[in-house]
Design goal:
The protein is of the alpha+beta class and about 240 residues long. The chain has three domains: about 45 residues; about 60 residues, Antifreeze-like/N-acetylneuraminic acid synthase C-terminal domain (Type Iii Antifreeze Protein Isoform Hplc 12), CATH 3.90.1210.10; about 80 residues. The chain contains two helices and seven strands. The chain has a five-stranded antiparallel β-sheet. A two-stranded antiparallel sheet has the order 1-2. A hairpin with a 7-residue loop joins strand 5 and strand 6. The longest helix is centred in the N-terminal third of the chain and has 51 residues. The radius of gyration is 45 Å and the shape is elongated. About 5% of the residues have low confidence.
Amino acid sequence: MATPMPSTRLPRRLPRPGKSTEASSAAPQAGLASTRVAASGRKRARPYLVLGAVLAAGGAFAFAGAFSHLGGKVAVLQLSHPVHSGQILSVGDVRSVQVSAGSNVPLIPLSASSTVIGHPVAMSLPAGTLLSPADLGTSALPDGQAMVAVSVKAGAFPTELAAGQKVAVAAVTPAGAASGVPVVVSSLPTATVISTTAASDSSGSMSVSLQTDSALAGQIASIPAGQVQLIVVSSGAGS
């Protein structure tokens, strides 16, 4: 019977003196170095981020300026329907429209609507007018002009009567009175319609404000109430 041979194990190689110590100490130093590099990188990146933000903002302002210079659209106020001189503007009288306007065009922007709403217009203006500061304010009658109000019954004025029209003012014969005298329109006093206000009842009558020469205003005012007839004429007709 064979006798087993004893097993022989080779001894493990021992590390060289100082090698493991150097490796173990090198790891923390490498980690510390990488941390310093990362921190340094972040410090260097901050000025570039700030500079980038400044350049981006400057570019945006430059683009906006160039866009405005090239005729960018702006929101301004426009009359939605005709208004008469001295009328107090309300929200329903104006609307916002987009137009191309330079800084030299004195239009009222939408942002300044508070300077328009609740304020009077200085003159009669048609619908579609782009409002400017010169359109606002209290109106002043020119020298030699006067304003007079007349009450006109239904059927004694055209249904299309509106501010800005020129009318001849005639005195109608009271009901029941005989009259065969024709009316000569060219001899009648003329005036410009400033405003019209319908009666609050169902009579169909209307109160009309007229602007005319001071001498003619006296003739118009002398017509008895309810006997006024308004005849729309061309702008060059009459006195």
